[in-house]
């Protein structure tokens, strides 16, 4: 059940996130900002950003949905991800 919820959340985020991201830079390196809006999501709903590690998902950021369904995930990363 948890895996179904995780997959649904990830697919929902991919669908709901705006196509533009604003790169930012922090002390540790490159940064990110992801803005999105979910329809029919109650205020306070949690949105998670996770990275697929070697054997499991690793949580990177969490945001709460506001009254209009909007959320923003932002932060910095120590290095750019690599393609495999």
TrEMBL record:
Domain DUF4369, first and last residues per copy: 32-79
Domain of life assignment: Bacteria
Protein's name according to its UniProt entry: DUF4369 domain-containing protein
Organism: Hymenobacter cellulosilyticus
């Amino acid at each position: 059940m948890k895996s179904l919820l995780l997959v649904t959340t990830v697919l929902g985020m991919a669908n709901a996130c705006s196509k533009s991201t604003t790169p930012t830079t922090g002390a540790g390196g490159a940064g990110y900002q992801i803005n999105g809006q979910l329809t029919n999501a109650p205020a306070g709903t949690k949105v998670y950003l996770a990275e697929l590690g070697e054997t499991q998902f690793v949580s990177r950021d969490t945001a709460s949905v506001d009254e209009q369904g909007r959320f923003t995930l932002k932060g910095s990363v120590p290095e750019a991800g690599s393609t495999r």
